[in-house]
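Why does residue order matter? Because the sequence determines the fold. Keep that principle in mind as you read this record.
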Amino acid sequence: MAKAAVIGSGIGGIAAAVRLAVKGFQVTVFEANPSYGGKMTQFTLPGGYRFDAGPSLFTLPHLVDELFTLAGRNPKDYFNYQRLPVVTQYFWPDGTRLTAHAEPDAFAHEVEQKLGVPQEQLQRHLQKVARLYHATESTFLHKSLHRLDTYLSKDVLKTLPALPELGLTTTMHAANARAFKDPRLVQLLDRYATYNGSDPYQAPGTLNLIPHLEFNIGAFYPEGGIYAIAQSLVKLAQELGVEFRYQEPVQQILTQGKQAVGVQTEQGEYPAQLVVSNMDIVPTYRRLLPQQPAPEKTLQQPRSSSALIYYWGISRTFPELDLHNIFFSQDYRQEFQHIFQQGSVSEDPTVYVNITSKYTPTDAPAGHENWFVMVNVPHNTGQDWETLIQQTRQHALQKISRALGTNVEALITAERVWDPKGIEADTSSFGGALYGSSSNNRMAAFLRHPNFTGKLKGLYFTGGSVHPGGGIPLCLLSAKIVGELVPAPSTTVPA
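Structure:
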């Protein structure tokens, strides 16, 4: 069998391994950490609190199901999930609380009741983003933007008429502020820029299609938490013959002329017909391809935001909270200026709280909750993170405690922190940026590194730092694109 080497077992790497194995390759995945998942790992804290370490939102579950179907398996034998009735609970500084119901009509009715925006106005908006999403997804998400055949496909015929409405020449915030007058609804819609680590005051209006995923398709919760996605796919991969080599980081991608021919680790050289890097594109070039010319313009694109994450065991339950909760800042523009212009953290940050024990009660002791508390922050450029961790912790506690009318700090029984330096060290994400480069440019989608390189045959790329971007669905789509780009295996294996 022809051999394929996959570098990194993040969700993009695991999905690529499955697709290559189905295609007929003998696949080996090399992982620097003791286990799989990349950012999608889990851990426990003393007292019986389980946490998903990284991603917390699950949309487009059919992209996971598709991998099992592709392998001739029944997805439900491996992986199950449920559609959330409530996407998010929102809290504003003025005391407004809003329940974002999953059904568009129920959400629009709630917005009318709480914010005074006519529900027909929001319903029309969600119908519009659904239409634009369906017109563009095949071209912009399911195919490489760096190949001529993408633009010659019949899908482009659906995309072209939608282009004038995509907001390519305006920002997310400007488009939302034109569509709605209530600043709270504008802020709610602007926050979707954070789904790929960007700034709504700079990012193109195209990103306003993101709410379609939650309200028209749905947000979901996997049985066992987000980690169950990686867990089930690794099980599938192993059944297909994929070998996972943990604590064996790749030191170099081996090349011969203009061909990738394998990888090298401390244990030796592993010849392969093709190599797929799921590592962040910057360290892939800087560390693993030091002799190859690097695409400097791409590697020097501005980074996305990172995160400060506080994992708290909480000694009581809060019925007013759900799986996903947002506590907004008073001045959203200033918050993003701190992140992207000043490289710092606002004293009034928006705080996200994820509580999986709402759906998996065993994730916390009876009468307790496991809180994943996240604040968007800049990627690491040498800031004093020890100070920022303490300051941001206090600001987050003050905000949540004020909104809930409770001293939350007194309820914390266990704690762990993940900061941009730790994210970078643990996952090789350059600067701890969660999504590679930011999308704070209307051409950002085209400036991401492609899923292949014209410089070296047999070398491909998956994951959040390359096309089509970060987050679980897009990483899965990056693997799908690679699977379609890779030619059928030959029996010739490099010596």
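The radius of gyration is 22 Å.
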